[in-house]
Design a protein that fits this description.
Number of domains: 2
Oligomer: single chain
Radius of gyration: 18 Å
CATH topology of the largest domain: D-amino Acid Aminotransferase, Chain A, domain 1
Protein name: ATP-grasp domain-containing protein
CATH architecture of the largest domain: 2-Layer Sandwich
GO molecular function, one term: ATP binding
Largest sheet: 7 strands, mixed
Helix content: 25-40%
Organism: Paenibacillus glacialis
Number of strands: 13
Pfam families: ATPgrasp_YheCD (PF14398)
InterPro entries: ATP-grasp, YheC/D
Number of helices: 6
């Protein structure tokens, strides 16, 4: 891809996927992603049994649909509603009516780690520091709302410290190593995007961990919302995030009413 020296934001998830795939060290962390067509959706469902379709340009988990093949049935879940069909064709027509002409992509579904049957993933914040060097400034876990397929705080998710929630499914050493790997992936991603778009100053990665403890980059946000970090008991991350953002001219609103803060005494 050609370098763009002035662009700070990229809205297309397909373009951002292409940037990731330029780095050989990141390829194994990128789930298969392609523009949505009937044939691609069917082929990926046959292969993976569960996929997500997302607006090519979108944020906050709005418009994300989980699609599954269960035996001879097909179903999809959008927001709090699940729709079941006898044939793929019936389901695809329903999806088409729902999304209209808006461009969508289809992405391999990652079976995330769960707590109380609620999936969780991680937001990894990477920013240029006051010396212009990429630095990982925060990692936070997002536990999905009980009735939703997405983990976003803006969709009612609950925010946890990363190692806290991971230590419930792995020993503390593995939990620490996973967070370390997330930070490494964040920095590799930032350096790759920084090569293609030198004017970029911040990225927010959505990273999932599957049941084999493998890490997957679900999405890269070039104008990330740092709201999850306001819900952590440790305020050092959000303080650093806000400080660095001011250095490169961004001021966050930090209106985070829908995301929930985990209870200090909660047991996962």
């Amino acid at each position: 891809m050609r370098m763009n020296r002035t662009m700070k934001y990229v809205s297309s998830k397909l373009v951002k996927t292409k940037v990731l795939l330029q780095n050989p060290a990141l390829i194994t962390n990128v789930p298969r992603t392609a523009g949505l067509t009937s044939d691609r959706l069917l082929n990926m469902l046959n292969r993976y049994k569960m996929v997500y379709i997302k607006p090519v340009c979108g944020s906050l988990g709005i418009g994300v649909i989980r699609v599954e093949q269960k035996g001879a049935q097909y179903r999809y879940r959008e927001e709090m509603n699940t729709y079941t069909f006898r044939t793929f064709q019936q389901m695809y027509l329903s999806i088409q009516r729902r999304i209209g002409s808006k461009p969508y992509l289809v992405q391999k579904g990652i079976v995330m780690l769960k707590h109380n049957n609620r999936p969780f993933d991680f937001r990894v914040m990477v920013q240029r520091n006051d010396k212009g060097i990429w630095e990982c400034t925060g990692v936070a876990a997002r536990l999905a709302h009980p009735k939703r397929a997405v983990t976003n705080g803006s969709q009612g998710g609950t925010i946890y410290a990363a190692e806290e929630i991971l230590s419930k499914v792995a020993d503390i050493t593995k939990a620490q190593n996973l967070v370390k790997k997330m930070k490494e992936i964040g920095l590799k991603t930032a350096n790759q995007f920084g090569t293609s778009y030198p004017a970029m100053n911040e990225l927010g990665l959505d990273i999932a961990v599957d049941r084999d403890l493998r890490l997957w980059i679900l999405e890269v946000n070039t104008r990330p919302d740092p709201c999850p970090f306001t819900k952590l008991s440790d305020s050092s991350m959000i303080e650093t995030i806000v400080k660095y953002a001011k250095e490169y001219g961004r001021v966050y609103e930090l209106k985070c009413n829908k995301a929930k803060k985990s209870a200090p005494t909660s047991k996962l």
